[in-house]
Structure formats: C-alpha cells, structure tokens
Amino acid sequence: MKEMESEVRPDSSGIKSTPLPIIEVINVKKSYTLGDLEVSVLHGIDLEVRKGEFLAIMGPSGSGKSTLMNLIGCLDRPSGGQVLIKGSDINKMSDKELARLRGLEIGFIFQTFNLIPRLSALENVILPTHANSKPGLDGLKRAEELLKMVGLEARMQHKPTELSGGQAQRVAIARALINDPALLLADEPTGALDSKSGAEILNMFKELKASGRTIVMITHDPDIARHADRIVHVKDGLIQNN
User: Fold this and answer.
1) Contact criterion met (CB below 8 Å) for 189 and 138
2) pLDDT tens across 108-162, in order?
3) Cα(103)–Cα(27) distance, rounded to whole angstroms?
4) Homologous superfamily assigned to 52-76+95-241
C-alpha cells in the first residue's frame, strides 16, 4: 500500500501545521446499474472528519447513509468525486491496497456483532490479524489487553452464544481495535441491545473518543446521535447540514 500522507498540513507560511482530516469526502456521487436502469444514490456529498471527532450520520431508510458508510469504510468506490482516507484517494488504489487499508486503518462495529459462533471471544478479537497486522504486533497479548479494557477478562474463552448482547458488542469493539485503526466505523451499534447495554456501549465510545479515537456512527435514532460531537443528516442523497 502506498504511504499515507502526513497527518499535518503546513499553513501558508510553511511553518505551522494543522491536522489533516482522517476522512475527506469531496463532491462524491454514487450510482448503481440495475439492468437497463441507472439508479443515483448520492448526488454530490462533501464531508470532513478530523482526528478525535465523534460524528453521527443520520438519515431515514433510503437516504443514502448506508451507501456513504460503505464508501467511508472502503467497502465500495465512488462513481464520481473523491474519498480520501488519511490523505489517500481510494479510487487510486488497487483492490489489494484497498483491502489492506481497510484492514489496518478502519475498525468495524456492526449492529449484529458479526462474531464467529465457533470461536471464543479471544479468538474473535485476534481474527483480523490473520489477514492484516501492523509490524511487531503480538496479537494474543493485544487481544487479552483489549478484552480486559472492555471488562471481559473473565469471558475470554466464552463463545458468543455464552455472552449477553452487551458483552458480545464489547467483544466486537475489542476486535475493531486490534490493529489500532485510525477510524472506528459503527453501524447502528446499539440497535440490537437493550437500553442499559446500549448506554454502556455509548459510554465506551465516549471514553474511546476521549483517548483520541475517531468514531463515525451510523444511526437512525436521534437519542443515540445526540451522544456524538456532531450530527450530519443525509436525505435524498445529500447532506442537509454539516
């Protein structure tokens, strides 16, 4: 994978510097071909997310927020415009480079946890390192540390079916952090949880944000979105406010 640009940008004097956005979405359009029909989903999205920000993206079903999430998460490529992750344009990357960027720089947290049922919590957390890992990473030690951090030191050998929903989502958060990614991308992370467990997960996000993590959360729930630093509304393929 090509080297990422520096995380700072010099000002006009060339002396001082300001942080580069982790995510830059520049006039992004996305359309899909269904038979003879071309369906346009995003119509020119502009968005920046800076290091350490906790951003919520809201929108009704069909608004384009899931399509935007897939582009930010490097799961798809834009039809027009640019998506830059830490300064690197995803449209200029090979599929292999994009997969490596996705594996090392983005941690995914899903509504349904996406844990492997036959694996223990510890094995689930280590799993992403089998495809991609940063130099010098001790996967086992890192996974144990992360499970302790999320309060599951006594549940490391438990299978997902032996965990509560809140515990399973904590395992998913630990898994998302295993490669020390620049960005956590959470898709309706409390949608499958009761209110108490959901509040615990949101508090964990706030702690991660306070430690310098960058989080982008997709949600349809305004009560959940209010926990973020900033809310972006997507409607009819466009951002309504930023």
Assistant:
1) no
2) 999 999 999 999 999 999 999 998 888 888 999 999 999 999 999 999 999 999 9
3) 25
4) P-loop containing nucleotide triphosphate hydrolases (3.40.50.300)
Please tell me the distance from the alpha carbon of residue 97 to that of residue 103, in angstroms, as a whole number.
10
Predicted TM-score (pTM) of the model is 0.88
- Contacts made by residues 207-214, CB under 8 angstroms, sequence distance 24+: 208/173, 208/177, 208/184, 209/52, 209/53, 209/54, 212/51, 212/52, 213/52, 213/184, 214/22, 214/49, 214/50, 214/51, 214/52, 214/53, 214/54, 214/182, 214/183, 214/184
Residue 148: phi and psi, rounded to 5, are: -65, -40
The side-by-side arrangement of strands in the sheet containing 183-187 is 106-110, 183-187, 214-219, 54-58, 230-235, 238-241
User: Would you say 181 and 22 are in contact if contact means Cβ atoms under 8 Å apart?
Assistant: no
The residue extents of the domains of the chain are 52-76+95-241
From first CA to last CA, the distance across the chain in angstroms is 31
Residue of 219, 123, 228 lying closest to 178 (CA atoms): 123
- The amino acid sitting at 162 is E
Which tokens is 36 given?
Answer: 């003879």
